[in-house]
Amino acid sequence: MGAKGKRILSAVFRYLVLAVILIFLMFPLYWVLMTSFKTNMEAYRFPPTMVPEAPTVDSYISLFTVDNFFFIYYKNNFIVSGVTALVTLVLAVMSGYALSRFKIGWNKWIVAALLSAQMFPIVSRMISLYGLLGKIHLINTRTGLIFALIAAMLPFAVTLMSSFFDGIPRELEEAAIVDGAGRIQTLFCIIMPLVKPGMVAVGIYSFLMTWDDYLHAVTLIQNDNLRTLSAGVALRYLGELSYDWSKVNTISVVGILPIMILFFAFQKHMVKGLVAGAVKG
Question: Which of 7, 71, 74, 257 is the most buried (most CB within 10 A)?
Answer without folding.
Answer: 74
